[in-house]
Every structure is written in C-alpha cells, then in structure tokens.
Amino acid sequence: MSIEILFYKLLSHYKDELPQDLLAAWQPKRIIDALIECNPDVEQNLTIKLGFQSSHGEPGKAFFQGHQKAVTRRLLRQYYHKLGSYLHTPTSSKIPDQQKMRSFLLGAAQRVEEHCRETTIIANISEFHAVACVCGRHLKRNVRAAKLKPYLKCPDEACEAEYDLLPDESGKSVWKLRELEFVCPKCETSNWFGAHLVGAGSSFKCVECETPYKVDVRLVVFPADQEAAS
Ligand SMILES: [Zn+2]
Ligand SMILES: [Zn+2]
C-alpha cells in the first residue's frame, strides 16, 4: 500500500498531463510508462535547492534543500511484485524460508522509508511548454519530454485534440493544433479542421458556400513508386 501511495502522490502532480482514467485503477506499469512520457527524468533522484536570486541574477544561498527520491520501475520489480506474491498461498509443498522472507520485508520497509523523510520532495518541477486546449483544458509538457517527442494529445477522452511543437514567427516553440485542410471543390475555399475531429461519419458545411459534406475513411493502397492519388 505504501508503494502504491508513493505512485498516487506523484501522479497528483501530473494530473494536467495525464488522462483521468489512469487514476481509476491501479495499473503500475501503465502509470510509470505515462509518467516517463511526461517526464523522462522521473526515475532520477534529485536534490532541489531553493534560494533567492541576487540582483546580478546569481542564485543566492539556499534556505531549503530537499531530495526527490525517485519512484521507479525498479521499486516495482525489486519489491512490489514480490510483496504481492507473499499474499498468496504457496502452491508447492516447499515450506517458505521465513528468515529470508523477514529480511526481504525489512528491506522493503527500509526502502519505502527513504521516501518518508522530512526533506523529501514529491513534485513535478520543470520548465514547460503550455497551451490552452480547444476544450478549455490547460495542457503542458516538460521541455525535455517535448524535445524527445514534440507531440501532445489532450488527455481528456472527450477531446483528444492533437498538438505538434513548432516554432512560431519569433522562433519560440509553441504547441500548434494538428489541423487538416480541405479545399471545397465548389467554391475553392480552404476549410481547416482539428485532425482529431475528422473521423468516419463526421460531417461539416463549407465555411464559405455552406455545401454539406460527410467524411468517409478508407484504406488506400498504391504502388510504392507512385504518388498517392489525391
Ligand atoms: Zn482538450
Ligand atoms: Zn465551399
């Protein structure tokens, strides 16, 4: 339970970045994978110092120093899964080595206690690229994660808008909604849609001439040495 709580405590700091259903059921593998996608450094132990910046911009003396003991896949592998196995009746007639069990359990308790010190920090501190999603939700992604994967999907299942991290006119990286263009054959006006809205059965009207259209999705296969028919 303590290990699960460590994961849940950490998850609460990532709620802007993760789908709600991740919290609904305990799926440690899925949770840690999702956390790593949000923060590639999530499994690193960190020392965090807080201090005032001097007038010259240099960091001042730290008035607080804390440690972030990472919640990792190793913690699951080394302790969590084995702890789970102790809850079941042994299926073989072999008598479990109680001394070995005891020292393992003490080791596990000690490992968990490393997270329970006064200066332990559970946080999600980073520089972020943020955007207000079309659904109104505040989205953000750690700059390191965005560098590895410059793509973001709104975690709200009812939305799922997709964004790509692209440079704006001033060269600053911003999340841009992934859009598709459709040129109306009647009036030759460009219609733009969020790519997440376009699926089989969806319908729309041309923004200019109001001709109604319906979207169908098909599999198109063509010889590799030819361009796809538009
Ligand atoms: Zn959204
Ligand atoms: Zn039109």
What does this structure look like?
With 230 residues, the chain is an alpha+beta fold. It contains 5 helices and 11 strands. The strands form 5 sheets. Strands 5-6-7 form a 3-stranded antiparallel β-sheet, with no helix packed on it. It has a two-stranded antiparallel sheet with strand order 1-2. Bound molecules: zinc ion (2 copies). One zinc ion is lined by residues 184, 186-187, 189, 206, 208-209, 211.
Outline the secondary-structure elements.
Blueprint: H1 2-12, H2 28-38, E1 46-53, E2 59-68, H3 73-85, H4 98-113, E3 128-132, E4 138-142, H5 143-148, E5 151-153, E6 162-167, E7 173-177, E8 179-183, E9 190-194, E10 203-205, E11 212-214
Antiparallel strand pairs: 1-2, 3-4, 5-6, 6-7, 8-9, 10-11
The structure holds zinc ion (ZN) (2 copies).
What labels would you give this structure?
230 residues, 3-stranded antiparallel beta sheet, two-stranded antiparallel sheet, 5 helices, 11 strands, flat
